[in-house]
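Title: Comparing notes on inverse folding

I've been comparing how different people in this forum approach sequence design from structure. To keep things fair, I'm posting one structure and asking everyone to reply with a full sequence. Here's the target:
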């Protein structure tokens, strides 16, 4: 898996994607954010990979809400 830094809109911390032709996965991080913010985003995107979200047909809002709820539970 490759990781890339791009200037994204500030509201977009990053995302994970899979190339439909090669099945190669990549994480895109926002170069405008701090190293710490990008570490958190990287961990968040890896979580999506580990729980199979890349293959999910669920609405993205459902997927993100579940991931953010998990993060909050870990911080308790």
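Reply #1:
Here's my take.
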């Amino acid at each position: 898996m490759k990781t890339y830094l791009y200037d994204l809109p500030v509201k977009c911390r990053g995302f994970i994607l899979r190339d439909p032709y090669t099945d190669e996965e990549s994480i895109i991080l926002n170069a405008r954010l701090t190293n710490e913010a990008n570490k958190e985003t990287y961990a968040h995107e890896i979580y999506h990979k580990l729980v199979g979200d890349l293959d999910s047909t669920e609405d993205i809002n459902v997927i993100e809400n579940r991931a953010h709820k998990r993060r909050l539970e870990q911080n308790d």
